[in-house]
Each structure stands twice: as structure tokens, then as C-alpha cells.
Amino acid sequence: MRPSVLDPFYASVRSLAGVGPKVSLMIGKVLGNDATEEPRVGQLVHLLPNSIIDRRSRPGIRLSPEGATVTLDLVIDHHQPSPQGRSNIPHRVIAHDDTGEITLVFFRAQQAYLLKMLPEGEKVTVSGKVEWFNGRASMVHPDYIASPDDIDSLPLLEPVYPLTAGLSPKTLARAIKEALPTLPHLAEWIDPTLMQREKFTSYIAALNHIHHPQEPEDIALEGANRRRLAYDEFLAGQLALALIRSKSRKIAGRSQQ
To answer: Quick check: pTM over 0.70?
Structure first.
């Protein structure tokens, strides 16, 4: 039997807030489970990002390069809602900063929601890709919209995970965020000399740094966090082989007559 301290790793992802049967099934697909296999928290936290979106650039509207992902601090000027019955025409929001003006574009959007999220005359922070046409800047469906009070919720370095149809990046990231605090803090199993030489952090710290990066190096393949988890996987494989060999030696064979 496994030690009870490891039970959180084997808990169903449906034990996490916001994860119901449909989301659980989609997470299972990403993890490579079949439809009958319940995805576990331990599997989820080891679903590592394959890249990162850097939202730290804050050049202002005028200096935002074409196609670049930027974060802009704006003042909302006014809304241009879609005409009644013309849902194919987008809802536009005109905003500005000290360097220029930008249009935020929303297709098939709910007007009441946008008026609440982007109130006229108020300051907001948005993040997304900037496009230029005839000298005018626009941002179609910003990835994030935050008020001054919620600015800390905007991920300046956002991990990008593998996905499947119907599973949004924000839903998966939220599930991983819920899962990480449930993990137990285990006694360190790596030799302290090796830890110091390789600049390893603890197992739990490595997972947290990868899922909540503060620098691009935090998720880099050659970085200390990834190398720490790779070492753990290799060590676990070697220990499993050693246990199998030890058990095999204890099995009595047939005596030779």
C-alpha cells in the first residue's frame, strides 16, 4: 500500500474547484487517458507547458510593433456597439494612452458585459496582439482585461499548455492552479551536494516555478526546474528496476537434479 501522504497525487481532478465531468474528460484526453480512466491530480501537475507568452512589453500604443503581444494601460473613451440585428459587425471600443489611440474589437460580444468590463472614462489594462491598418492600431479580442485593482491577476509570463477541442487555456491553467496547493511537501530525496551543484530547488518548488514562471528561464528545457523533474523521473525509473530485480532474486528457482 502507498503511504497516505501521497493520496493527494491520486485524487481525481474532479475534486478541484471548477472541474466537472466535461472538463475532467477533456483533461483526460490531453493527458492521453482513455475515456474510462479518471485523470488524477498527480498527472495534471506534471502536464508541463511547451512554451510561454511574454506579456511584459509595455511600449505604449504608438510604439507597439505589428503582431506583437503587448500590455497597455488605457483610458476608455467610448463604445461603438454593433447595430441592432447586425451581429456580423463588431462592437468597437475606442481607448487611448499618452502615446496614441487604439480600437478594441469584439465580435459577437455581449454589450452589457463589455460596458461593465470597459466603462467609459475609466482606466483599464489590456493584453493581446496589436494590429496596424492605415496607421491605426487595433486589438481584436484582448486576451486579458484588468482593472487597476485586479492588475496582479494578469499573467505577465503565461505558460502555454497542450490542449484539446473544447478545453480553453484559461480553464486548464485554472485547474492546475487549483491543484498545486493540494500537493504535500515531501522530505527531500536528492543528496544535498547534488542539489547545490545543480542549483535544484525542491520538487514542489520546481513544479510551482514551471507553472507560475517569473522569468522565461523558469520553464526552459535546460533550466534547473525542468532538469530537477527529469532527474526525479530518471531516479524513479531506476528505483523501480532495482525493486523488480531485488524481488526476482528472492524467487526460489527449481533445483537442478
So the answer is: yes
